[in-house]
Amino acid sequence: EIVLTQSPGTLSLSPGERVTLSCRTSQSVGSSRLAWYQQKPGQTPRLLISGAYFRATGIPDRFSGSGSGTDFTLTINRLEPEDFAVYYCQHFGTSPSLMYTFGQGTKLEI
Amino acid sequence: EVQLVQSGAEVRKPGESLKISCKGSGYIFPTSWIGWVRQMPGKGLEWMGIINPSDSDTRYSPSFQGQVNFSADKSINTAYLHWSSLKASDTAMYYCVRPNAGDTFFDYWGQGTLVTVSS
To answer: What is the mean pLDDT of residues A16-38?
Structure first.
């Protein structure tokens, strides 16, 4: 079973800053199987990035994803007040069966 | 427009049974798996498993195998999550999710059903 480790657990930043969130997988994975979600307090998670790099519909271009192998990152340029939320990475696997795994999340706070 | 609409919040006592639902619309329901995700209070997202509504093929996360059951009724575009005997530790928000066409991520989420188990 693949384990996703996100770091840091919590990050305190200010609007306008740039931030990079990390998601490390316990073994090498295909980038097509790595996604990122944002969850604001009291809200349903929403898809930000799929296939490690591709922004979902309606996601501002200040959000970008990168990485390969075991190291993936979500970068947010010029933080806006509405970006303060919890971010999760997620992997899809097929061995030995269909399996989805979430990282434990990174909380971005002001 | 694709939508997943879940049933409302539930309060139950330990040992009671419960079935919550997730109704899909805006797409051909049997053509996509439906998954379930748990979020305990103040905690992260946990994938519970997934069901194929066309044939009820079901895959459970090892952490949830034997703890819950999934079912689906494709005639009414609805998937279900069922507990036969609730525990206090089942208190959580439960989301149904729809994977994308390649099944690699969840592009649609239900609004969530809050389940509270307390004596």
So the answer is: 95
